[in-house]
Amino acid sequence: MLISGGGSSIRTANEVFDLFGLNSTEEISFRGVDTFAGLGDGTIHFSNQGFDRYSLFVKAIGGIGPTWDVRLQGSPDGLLFTDLIAHTQADGSGVLKFPPDAIPRPTYAVKSKVVGLTGGGSVQVIWIGMRG
Question: Which residues pair with 91 in a beta bridge?
Answer without folding.
Answer: none
